[in-house]
Amino acid sequence: MQHGNEQLRDPRKIFKTLQLVHLILVFGMFAFAVFTYFIQENLRLDAMSGGSMAIYLVPVLGLAGYFGSQWVYRKLLVSVRPHHPLSQKLTRFQSASYLQYTCLEIPALCALLAYLYDGFVLHLAIAAFLILYMYSRKPTVKKLKEALPLTTEELRLLE
Fold this sequence. Notes:
Layout: H1 2-39, H2 54-77, H3 86-118, H4 121-136, H5 141-147, H6 152-158
Helix pairs in contact: 1-3, 1-4, 2-3, 2-4, 3-4
């Protein structure tokens, strides 16, 4: 009987772990963005006064991270089938989510480092956008239902 209860708790545990990791990543990036905002003393609005390549690189990385995160997420979840076990579906959803967060976090981190280096406010804005988008990708049961072909019994196990 103990083994059956373990299986019932496992899907919820996997999902709660994903939610916790998401919260930690978003909070960490937000805290770093606030930190960089307050330690940067040379706030600049003029992009061309610094002559840095970051003015071109950061927006491209930001766009690549945004669109790449969506592509990776969809690409990993398209192979999930209704007959797969719930643990496999959740593992695939977890992997897709982690890769999506990584695709957003790396360009946001680069944008914040560029902001620290040259103080150009656009870099901070790009990082803020990516962090907000990452926050909007918070894993919920509703998003799980939309992303995966779940049965009624599987949904019951997650709630």
